[in-house]
Amino acid sequence: MGRDAQAVRERATVEQYEPPVFGIDRELWVAEDAETGCTGIGRVEDEAIGNLVSLVLTHESAAVDETEYLKLPGDVRKKRWSDVGARKRRGIVERLFDGF
């Protein structure tokens, strides 16, 4: 997957938009892949590219169709396992499910 992700990064077209373009109130980055039609959007460049890579890898492993994907900045969730002792007693999967 590392090689595939790097290939997506290398062929991505990345643009930065600053307010007040398109009515946005803060900086926005858009990364597009012409090969798949996928678009990743982020508040910083790395987030846009990361979202794009995630989409392209999903697109390439999905059934063959003409679907194009768009990924916006995701939700930020508070870690509910900040207690160091709890981290040592429980596994990562259990802690992740605590957030949902």
Describe this structure in words.
The protein has helices at residues 2-11, 45-61, 84-89, 92-98, and strands at residues 13-17, 28-33, 38-42, 70-71. With 100 residues, the protein is α+β, with helices and mostly antiparallel strands. The protein has a 4-stranded mixed sheet with strand order 1-2-3-4. Strand 3 (38-42), helix 2 (45-61) and strand 4 form a beta-alpha-beta unit. Helix 1 packs across helix 2. The longest helix has 17 residues, at 45-61.
Fill in the keyword field for this structure.
single chain; 100 residues; alpha+beta; 4-stranded mixed sheet; globular
Structure summary, number of beta strands: 4
Fraction of residues in β-strands: 15-25%
Instruction: Give the helix proportion (percent range).
Output: 40-55%
Radius of gyration: 17 Å
Secondary structure tally, helices: 4
- Taken together, the total number of domains comes to 1
Distance between the termini: 28 Å
Low-confidence stretches: none
Structural class: alpha+beta
Overall spatial form: globular
Order of helices and strands: HEEEHEHH
Q: What is the spatial order of strands in the main beta sheet?
A: 1-2-3-4
User: Main β-sheet: number of strands, strand sense, barrel status?
Assistant: 4 strands, mixed
Average of the residue pLDDT scores: 78
